[in-house]
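2024-03-11 09:14:02 DEBUG pipeline.ingest accepted 1 chain
2024-03-11 09:14:02 DEBUG pipeline.ingest length=374
2024-03-11 09:14:03 DEBUG pipeline.predict start
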Amino acid sequence: MNTLRIFDTATRSQRDFEPIRPGHASIYLCGATPQAQPHIGHLRSGVAFDILRRWLLAQGYDVALVRNVTDIDDKILTKAAENNRPWWEWVSTYEREFTKAYNLLGVLPPSVEPRATGFVTQMVEYMQRLIDAGFAYPVPAPDGAAGSVYFDVEAWTKAEGSDYGALSGNRVEEMEQGESDNAGKRSPLDFALWKAAKPGEPSWPTPWGRGRPGWHLECSAMSTYYLGSNFDIHCGGLDLQFPHHENEIAQSHAAGDKFANYWMHNHWVTMAGEKMSKSLGNVLSISNMLELVRPVELRYYLGSAHYRSVLEYSESALTEAAAGYRRIEGFVKRFAGVERGDWTPDFEDAMNDDIAVPKALAAIHTTVRAGNKD
């Protein structure tokens, strides 16, 4: 197997990776919403797609990877208000914590790391394109001073070429956007591109009134600004498949952009069978994990399962992974200075098989065991 094959969520099949530009790979990764300390559930995505990026680099590709920061949203504003801190200070504090954690785990810096608040101009342009095409509509506030802008899901589903629901496999009529403010929506299915200003909240001017970005619009604006209207791979966590990624596709296609050719989603880190999240109270921070193992061992643990598989956390699994890494490390140190060849065919086949890290590590450990017998 000499060609990288990727499991594309959109087609639910493995496909040969055929880049738009030969020798170049363009990747957009949904990054952090820095509202609190990062935990290993957050960092799994960064590690998983860093492995993808490094394998593409090893294959000779020129890789452009854009990883965004959602630096304005409801949760950030709520957390900052609860702690009586300015929202911009709150988000900046935890953005630095995410950057520190990425660096500790050896995740390569992205080619660029845009923030949502820096792309209001591009979002305004995107909304205008959607309004002109008949797939979005502004809703003035009751006082006429400011308004929201919504994506018209029904109009899009009736349009030629619409594929709404295809990524997640959800039935359109059963979709719940999860938005608390539905004032002025033509349908509960519609989602916010722009949220009208509220007292005390930060806001930016638009032709339809002051407000702030909706969650989904920012990623379409940032990805296409840097990577073009059609790029290779869009990555992110499985929990983003709906509504975030489904809505990204809808607004991008409705605006006339081809958008991503491949969709890759990493699975969750779970504990006691439940997805790791702050609401469940089972958060394991990076700083706590690094009291148990070294950063490189934590990276090894987070990357050791197939990215599409659930990674069930336990301290014993973490320490076992750390021991496995140390066996490889000891072998490399033992043979330091010995002329090295390339990777084995088994390793290459595994990595080209949808980045099958468990099979690749099995090939490495086979080599280690054979070498230790010599």
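2024-03-11 09:14:41 DEBUG pipeline.report Residues 151 and 251 are 7 Å apart (CA to CA).
2024-03-11 09:14:41 DEBUG pipeline.predict end
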